Fold this sequence. Notes:
Number of strands: 15
Distance between the termini: 12 Å
Strand content: 15-25%
Order of helices and strands: HEEEEEEEEEEEEEEE
Structural class: mainly beta
Largest sheet: 6 strands, antiparallel
Oligomer: single chain
Amino acid sequence: MTSFGYNVLGFGSSASAAGGSVIEYLVIAGGGGAGGDRGGGAGAGGYRSSVTGESTGGGGTLESGFEFSVGTEYTVTVGAGGAGGVGGDAVGTIGASSVFATITSIGGGFGGAGTTNYAGGAGGSGGGGAGNSGGVIAGAAGTAGQGYAGGEVQSSPHQSAGGGGASEVGGDGVEGPGSQYGVSGDGGDGLASSITNSSVTRGGGGGGGNHTGGGTYGIAGAGGAGGGGAGTISSNTGGSGTANTGGGGGGGSNSSGAFIGGSGGSGVVILRVATANYSGTTTGSPTVTTVGAYKILLYNASGSYTG
């Protein structure tokens, strides 16, 4: 049986431990790919958590643990990051979803491209927009309980917005004093989890890229904490999201006419199972460690776990 409700019964409580049939999980999808020319930063992969005392993405309520059945095999899919856009009008691609059993996290939204004012795409966290000729381009939406929206591009031309992260909206692209090309938005920050017994931040959005023409440089956006790639003004390609964090890619520039957005980082699936109830039957070669009375299974690639 699978529980989709809120976490009323925390894993690790006496009742949960006595029942023994609950797995805590952290399921993070692949981050989106960023846009090419003055590219918008991409959104982080969706972030779903049932880890007691921590947070799930998008400001949602912590989820309940997964109730497993003995002898049943549960699929684990780790989503790949989306590709960055290549070309002046090229937006990125959405990241791939990550799945544990019936728990699905949505891939991060792609970043927009600035040559003709392309908005970013919706996803686990939304991608940032990119602008060339003024106006306002709203950030793309995130998914409830998984991540935040991308930032918007404000009225000044030639900048882009940051992608959304698991814990906050991507930064807006705004006019910058003394710079005809403005200031691009930073990626939204991710969330920290200690499910592995070490605090690791994942799910950061990508920063927006900016323009270098006319002898006046804009300011690119930084990647969000948790694996978000930085936007660029001085190299061909925006920064890539960090592998196995679900970080969004950073927006590209046109410094050498290449217009290449950064790719998203792949996702991750982490499970915590009471040692007394751990079957030891897995596929996909997860890293298995023991922390106190629990087994921690970290999947950087797809596989399965049998209850």
